[in-house]
Amino acid sequence: MSDNPYAQPESSIQTQNKPIDQYSGFITKAIIMTTFALVPYIAALFICPQFEEIFENFGTNSTLPTLTRLIMNNYKWLPLLWGFALIPCILLLAKGGFSPKTRHIFFKIITINLIFSILFIVVAVIAMYLPVFHVSTVV
Fold it and tell me: How many structural domains are present in the chain?
């Protein structure tokens, strides 16, 4: 035993120095961000058809606001837009591996897609409720 109280304690237990996986944090963030960016597009594929039925039951399908008609006519193409953001990410990772520059570009692409996803949710909610507000003013 040493007289120095600040000396590192000695142990009989042998430890193995395992290398830290430097990509585990990147992969986790990438999966979370990709999932959050994908959710609004999947939701649109399931929610917009339900609103389509509601608008047909209202009998206001021809007098829908422009924003609502735009989303109702084009919601089927939204996953294709998401694919346009995902394909460069996959190609980027395939070409550049997990280098810091590649990770930075990947996160930029996914972040932009995430921002557009959030904007889409806001615009879609407004667009889906515009006819409801219009019908309530007529009644």
Answer: 1
- What is the phi/psi pair of residue 3, to 5°? -80, -10
Q: Per-residue pLDDT tens for 24-59?
A: 666 777 777 777 777 777 777 888 888 888 887 777
Residue 107 CB burial class (10 angstroms; 0-12, 13-18, ≥19): middle
DSSP state at residue 20: P
Which regions of the chain are under pLDDT 50? none
Contact of 92 with 106, CB cutoff 8 Å: yes
Rg (CA), the chain: 26
Inside any domain, residue 53: yes
| 46 inside domain | yes
The whole-number pLDDT of residue 75 equals 80
The answer to whether residue 128 sits within a structural domain is: yes
Domain range enclosing 58? 34-138
131: closest CA among 60, 83, 81? 60
**Are the C-beta atoms of residues 64 and 135 closer than 8 Å to each other?**
no
